Every structure is written in C-alpha cells, then in structure tokens.
Amino acid sequence: MSLEEFSPSESPEAGANAAEISEKLKDAIKRGTAGIKRTQKDEKKAKKYDMLLAGFLVKIIIDKKYDWILESLFSSLDKGFSSNLVLWILSLSYEEISEKIRSSSGKDYAPYTFKYSENTEFNDSTLDPQVKQRINFWVEDISDIITLEYSNIQIQELQKNFILNKNIIISFTAKVFQLFLQSSNITATPVQLASISEFILWEIESEIKKLEIEEI
Fold it and tell me: What are phi and psi of 19, to 5 degrees?
C-alpha cells in the first residue's frame, strides 16, 4: 500500500522546566507502563519492543514539541495497544525510531529534511515526491514491525483493540501525522487527518487478521 492508493530534542532546562519534566515522567510511568508491562510476561519479541519504546518515551517527554500528543499517546498505551504499533506511529515524526525500524528490517534509511518554503495545504495528488516517499516508507515500515517476528500476545491485543478502541488509535495517529506535516510546512484539516489515518490503520488491521496466532 502507498499514499497514492488513498482516496476520499531539546535538553531540559533547570528549575521550573526540570520540575515539569519530572511530573511528565511520573505521569508516563503511571499511565504508560501499564500497557508496556502487559506484554512483558509473554515473549522476548514483545519485550524487545517494550524496552525500545520505554527508552524513547523518556526522550519524547523531554522534547516539548511532543507535548500536545502525549495525552493521546498515553491513552493508546492505557488501552493496551502494543508497543510495536505505538513505535511505528511515532516513527513518522521521530526519525531515530524510523532509523531503528528500517535498520532492523535490513532496509536503507535516509534522513528526511524536506520543508516547503511557504505554508502549503495538504493534497495527496500534488505533494512533493519527497513527502510522498517519506509517508510511503512509513507505511512500508508498519508491515515489517507488525508481521516480522511478531509476538502472539501483541497481535491478540491488537486484534481486540482494533474492535474496542479504534477511535483512540486513530486520534493518536492523526496527531502524529499532523506533527509530521507541520514540520514540512503543510497544513491539513482535521477531517483529512482522521480520514487518512483511518485508511492506513484499516490496512494494518487487515494484515493483522491474516496472521496465524499460536496458543500461549
């Protein structure tokens, strides 16, 4: 699947800032690790992504540009969405995660630096090829992180959550997608963001349903 198929850190400062970051870390531990711990009793494959996400969570919390996505991030973890899916969603706007995913899949990684010189409205048919390529690589990565060496318990949790809590993960994906577009000087409407996020996640859900689950 590609985009063409769709149709419709900064360092902490002393004082008050350090205290604010401390509170965010406490909140992350309280609200985020519940979802992470849920898979640690299962397989090493699940634990690998759990620990990777835990490490990146600290960096994301410290970087203020991610402040406005934290609520939806924590909500996704609270509902038990697995660490591999959350990592993939974040990877669109967090290049270090993207590099890690592509490296583990044996694929080349190229830093994304494109930005329009002036504000541009989102239109998938007229997007610069560099933007399309970045989005298409992102969509490609989810196939790898979900289906390669997948954890049974993670897939079972995803299957359940795509039925019970799909709106939460769509909201989170839309916020991360918006963050990516803004970094490229692109503006999209809430309807566009929700629509393309729902489309991409529907494709992911379809792939998940094809996976064979072994009894644990």
Answer: -65, -40
Q: At what angle do helices 95-104 and 129-147 cross, to 10 degrees?
A: 60
Residue 70 CA, chain-centre distance (Å), reads: 12
Which residues touch 118 (CB under 8 Å, ≥6 apart)?
Answer: 185
DSSP string, 59-97: HHHHSGGGGGGHHHHHHHHHTT--HHHHHHHHHTT-HHH
**Residue 145 in this model has a pLDDT that exceeds 60:** yes
Amino acid 113 reads T
Q: Largest alpha-carbon pair distance within the chain?
A: 53
| Other residues' Cβ atoms within 10 Å of the Cβ of residue 127 | 20
Residue 83 · residue 191 · CB < 8 Å:
no
The answer to whether 82 and 151 have CB atoms below 8 angstroms apart is yes
Report the predicted TM-score, pTM, of the whole model to 2 decimal places.
Answer: 0.77
Asked if 72 and 168 count as a contact pair (C-beta separation under 8 A), the reply is yes
* Predicted pLDDT at 57: 87
Q: Which residues contact 60 (CB under 8 A, 6 or more apart)?
A: 66, 70, 73, 90, 94
- In angstroms, the CA 48 to CA 40 distance is 9
Interatomic CA distance for residues 40 and 33, integer angstroms: 10
List, for residues 31-71, the tens digit of each pLDDT value.
Answer: 544 444 544 445 566 667 777 788 888 889 889 899 989 99
DSSP conformation class of 12: P
